[in-house]
Design brief:
The complex is a heterotrimer of chains A (177), B (99) and C (748). With 177 residues, chain A is mainly alpha-helical. Helix content of chain A is 73%, strand content 0%. Chain B has one domain: Helix Hairpins. Helix content of chain B is 78%, strand content 0%. Chain C is mainly alpha-helical. Chain C has a two-stranded antiparallel ribbon. In chain C, strand 1 and strand 2 form a beta hairpin. The chains are: A mainly alpha (177), B mainly alpha (99), C mainly alpha (748). At the A-B interface, helix 1, helix 2, helix 3, helix 4 and helix 5 of A face helix 1, helix 2 and helix 3 of B.
Chain lengths: 177, 99, 748
């Protein structure tokens, strides 16, 4: 059964969400495609912003507000600025460049298509018509933080150490001697 | 809403990210594609978290965001170093792994 | 494991737990703690101290040893009182139904020697555990588990470690990394004790790996020489192979036992049959791989002889007495898992017994051709470890552990003896450079001979008793009983007994008899070297009496002394240990085994004697007998080449995978990735490259390179895979992942 037929059987209460999802999905896929094909580095970065924003919107659809907020703050706020700094510091050309891609793009395309095919098959085969719960109870920030600071305290600490290590590592690698 | 809507969207973004990693020559663009891959994984985690009504999905999504931030920092530092040493961030020229 | 009542399944009934505890059992964690602290102190302050940190290490290990001795004595007293009917502190109050007939009112001593074996009860393990960390719903604990097995190990490790510390002050005196050496000795002891006392499998893995790291550091102590650092790397990498097995096995057990790391819990479930047999089989096979690497079992044993590159006291401590028995210890710790998984009971062969049997024979054969005295001892260790694994494999639990116990003393004695020889003979271990040392080094000679006699299993030295119990435990000899009829392991064991006596006779002849062939001026060593030797020789003499068979104890007139070790160490009537049936001692078997060993020793001795009469300076290698007989020469070469296992690993396996893989990647790189588009533009260039690579280089290097290209990964071929292009690596990785996922989908 096709995906669209399944979506069509949707209960009417999810109609607005489904429309929103359609819009978000189209935006993110198109932006992502543009990002990996554009010949302008700065444009690529801006397309990435678009993808990240639509991913944040997806989180909101999934009732994960805190993750969505973090996504916007960390990715669109911090990571993208870093990326643009990277572009700037490596003195990318202003405007289009013609030497951003490899010659043998078809190999990359082949591998990506193979991956997509395998994953899609597995997903459709296994999660065919599983639906999200009729009433999605939003998981509050308080619940998320409770979980992080009780159950997952050890991974949390590990990540703290990782960030520290990355900080020091980045300074050591990039500084001029 | 179907669970698969989200999972398939994530799969498509993942594949596009892989394509980007494999075809881009510019180091910064490769890093951006990696961000795309990580984001698609996050969609999966959050979708499963909602599907199972379990907070753990979101928790791990947050962890991945943190790790991605660290990864970008170190990755950009490496790209900068390569640029400084070779005046180019073409990853296809970086073949010094050759023994 | 010799008992007079083999017909009764002794541990089948589960008694009420007998709980005993005291401060020593509760605080045993202080022992590894002290050693770890000592490691830190030596590391930070060692160099500034008058004795360069050795004093901290020796103080710490002495304290640990005293603790271990105190605990061993308390344990023995407690065990004996429980044997005599004491029901412990808490259990007595709640006893309602008494399944074994030791009522509170009855209270008479259960006569041990007669039908009393049925009633043997042991103290419940004393577990003290802290939550180390919590993740998800799983808690990871760390703690101490005190039972007979860990008390025994604690004693052995601290005892040998103490003597090795003392010995080392002289032996490595003046070394440039003296402080570093003592720091690692401390860390090693700490991690071994940490592993020995582990309450859960996770802690066991941590201890196991820590021991491996220390071993790496100590083998490579003199890393300036390439051979030494190579040996350290080899030990480390070979152990990694087994560690995969350890991880997989432990994870299988974790899930099989319903999500627990607790050793006692896992064992109880395995005994009660709550874990699926197939899972237990998988887990035991994986864990056997770990045992094979850590305890030097056949095909992964190759690192152990190379590990002799480390300082000799380290070899004694790590590669003879303590670390390598970690695998054996782990089997004993999780014995119910193996018992059920490998179906030890009532069988006549299983993986463990076979692996042990093969190892002891093959290791023993290798010991015959070594010229380096330490290597002989190393292969002898491999062989004796095989013996222990064999014992556990045939269901002779106590015999295996008892052999571990006795072996620790005499092997440490022999290794330190070898160290003493080398210290005297200008740092050589080559037996061709020795000879006639018995008059020059009488103390070393005497202790070395005692160690050899114990190793060869001569009455009444330690090895005799433990070896004999293993042979009886195989259940083949008439009237022994046991857990099955393990014919092949039994004959392997018998053959090994003969070989052990043979190669030790050879060593003693070459080192101590005849005339001195070297160029140094040997001398007897000082007290710090000879006193540890004498202590160890003393232990090697008497340790065997701890587990005399009952009839022999009765014969000597000390009734309760029979099977003391078994009573102290082996759990009985508890829920977490399988019902092992014990073999009975056999006088005829003991006599036959001794005769076989004696005959082998006599034959070797006579051979060298004759050799000596023909040419006083000769060692076996100039002898015509070996040189002229084709068959013997072929066998000899094979032994010298160590069954070509190292060749197999480095050339066939490593080279074989590298070669085709390299060629495939090279082809892919050249033809698919670069080729397709570039052919037109760069054909000239690639032609030039081709000419350069194959014709120019080929012409220069000639046939060597050509064969390299064809068969194994020579430099030419390897250059192909190492194109260094990240992109092609990434493409290969993603492509392979996608393909594997597709395969996975199709298969599952």
């Amino acid at each position: 059964m096709s995906l669209f037929a399944l979506i069509a059987q949707e209960t009417p209460q999810f109609l607005p969400q489904n429309i929103a999802f359609g819009v978000i999905a189209v935006i993110s896929v198109v932006a992502a495609l543009k990002m990996v094909t554009t010949s302008n580095v700065v444009h690529a970065a801006l397309y990435l912003v678009l993808v990240l924003a639509s991913v944040a919107a997806t989180y909101i659809l999934l009732a994960a507000e805190f993750v969505a907020a973090t996504q916007i703050l960390v990715y669109i706020g911090a990571v993208m600025v870093l990326m643009l700094f990277g572009v700037m510091l490596t003195r990318a050309q202003i405007g289009a460049e013609d030497d951003l891609n490899h010659d043998q793009r078809w190999i990359g395309g082949l591998v990506a298509a193979l991956l997509l095919a395998v994953m899609s098959y597995a997903l459709i085969d296994h999660y065919g018509d599983d639906r999200l719960p009729e009433t999605i109870v939003p998981q509050t920030t308080a619940e998320v933080s409770d979980e992080i600071f009780s159950t997952y305290i050890v991974p949390f600490e590990a990540i703290s150490v990782l960030l520290l290590a990355a900080l020091i590592g980045a300074i050591v690698v990039a500084r001029r001697d | 809403m179907l669970l698969n809507q989200f999972l398939l969207l994530a799969a498509v973004l993942f594949a596009i990210g892989v394509y980007g990693v494999l075809t881009r020559k510019n180091g910064v663009l490769v890093l951006m594609s990696i961000e795309l891959i990580l984001n698609s994984v996050n969609i999966n985690l959050v979708a499963f978290g909602t599907f199972n009504a379990d907070v753990s999905g979101q928790v791990f999504a947050l962890f991945i965001i943190a790790v991605a931030a660290a990864e970008v920092g170190v990755g950009l530092a490496i790209v900068l170093l390569i640029y400084r040493n070779r005046r180019s961030i073409d990853v296809s020229e970086a073949d010094m792994l050759k023994g | 494991m010799l008992s007079t009542t083999s017909l009764f399944a002794v541990s089948a009934e589960i008694a009420d737990p007998v709980v005993k505890t005291n401060l020593l059992y509760e605080w045993v964690g202080l022992v590894p703690g002290t050693m770890a602290l000592s490691f830190l102190l030596i590391l930070f302050f060692g160099k500034k101290l008058p004795y360069k940190g050795a004093e901290i290490g020796i103080t710490a290990i002495s304290l640990s040893f005293l603790f271990a001795v105190a605990m061993a004595f308390t344990w023995i007293i407690d065990t004996q009182s429980v044997l005599n009917g004491d029901k412990g502190e808490t259990a007595a109050a709640v006893v309602v139904d008494d399944p074994i007939g030791v009522g509170e009112t009855a209270a008479p001593l259960i006569p041990l020697a007669e039908e009393g074996e049925k009633a043997r009860v042991t103290i419940d393990p004393i577990v003290k555990e802290f939550d180390w960390l919590e993740n998800g719903n799983t808690t990871f604990g760390v703690g101490t588990l005190v039972d007979g097995q860990s008390v025994m190990m604690l004693f052995v490790v601290t005892f040998i470690s103490l003597l090795v510390h003392v010995f080392s002050t002289d032996y490595v005196g003046g070394d440039r990394r003296y402080t570093h050496y003592f720091a690692f000795l401390s860390l090693f002891t700490a991690s071994m004790l940490f592993m020995v006392l582990s309450t859960n499998t996770l802690q066991l893995i941590v201890g196991w790996e820590l021991v491996g790291v220390c071993s790496f550091a100590l083998i490579g102590h003199w890393w300036e020489e390439k051979a030494n650092s190579d040996a350290a790397l080899k030990a480390f990498l070979t152990n990694r192979v087994g560690d995969i097995g350890l991880l997989v096995g432990m994870i299988t057990l974790y899930f099989g036992a319903g999500g627990t790391f607790d050793i006692i819990d896992i064992n109880s479930q395995a005994v009660a049959g709550e874990i699926d047999h197939t899972l237990l089989l998988i887990a035991s096979c994986c864990l056997m791989a770990a045992v094979a690497s850590k305890s030097g079992q056949f095909i992964l044993h190759t690192w152990l002889p190379d590990a002799m590159a480390g300082p000799t006291p380290v070899s004694a401590l790590i590669h003879a007495a303590t670390m390598v028995v970690a695998g054996v210890y782990m089997i004993a710790r999780l014995y119910p898992v193996f018992w059920d998984g490998l179906s030890i009971s009532g069988s006549n062969i299983n993986l463990m017994a076979l692996m042990g049997g093969i190892t002891c024979v093959f290791g023993g054969a290798l010991a015959f051709v070594q010229t380096d005295v330490k290597k002989v001892l190393a292969y002898s260790t491999v062989s004796q470890l095989g013996y222990m694994v064999l014992a556990l494999g045939v269901g002779a639990y106590t015999a295996g552990l008892f052999h571990l116990f006795t072996h620790a003393f005499f092997k440490a004695c022999l290794f330190l003896g070898a160290g003493s020889l080398s210290h005297a003979c200008h740092h050589t271990f080559d037996m061709r450079e020795m000879g006639g040392l018995r008059k020059i080094m009488p103390k070393t000679f005497a202790t070395f001979v005692i160690g050899s006699l114990a190793l060869a299993g001569a009455f009444p030295f330690a090895g005799f008793w433990s070896k004999d119990e293993i042979l009886a435990g195989a259940g083949v000899w008439p009237g022994t009983g046991g857990n099955g009829t393990y014919y092949i392991p039994f004959w392997f064991g018998m053959l090994t007994a003969a070989m052990t006596a043979g190669y030790m006779a050879r060593v003693i002849w070459l080192v101590f008899m005849g005339e001195y062939r070297g160029h140094a001026h040997p001398h007897e060593n000082g007290n710090r070297i000879t006193v540890p030797l004498m202590i160890l020789a003393f232990m090697a003499t008497i340790a065997g009496f701890l587990n005399m068979p009952k009839p022999f104890a009765d014969f000597l007139g000390i009734k309760d002394a029979g099977l003391a070790f078994e009573h102290w160490v082996e759990p009985a009537s508890v829920a977490h240990f399988p019902a092992i049936s014990h073999a009975s001692p056999s006088l005829s078997l003991a006599i036959v085994a001794s005769l076989v060993a004696g005959a082998a020793a006599a034959a070797v001795w006579a051979y060298y004697r004759r050799l000596h009469q023909m040419d006083p300076k000769a060692t076996a290698y100039t002898d015509s007998f070996v040189a002229n007989n084709k068959l013997i020469r072929a066998g000899h070469t094979m032994l010298v080449e160590k069954y070509y296992l190292d060749h197999l690993y480095t050339h066939l396996i490593a080279g074989g995978t590298k070669g085709p893989l390299a060629r495939a990647a090279y082809w892919f790189n050249q033809n698919v990735l670069d080729g397709t588009v570039n052919v037109a533009g760069r054909s000239t260039a690639s032609l030039g490259r081709f000419v350069y690579r194959y014709i120019d280089q080929g012409a220069i290097d000639g046939a060597v390179n050509a064969s390299g290209l064809g068969a194994s990964g020579s430099g030419q071929v390897l250059r192909g895979i190492q194109s260094g292009k990240i992109r092609s690596y990434a493409t290969l990785m993603f492509g392979a992942a996608a393909l594997l996922a597709a395969v996975f989908i199709v298969v599952v």
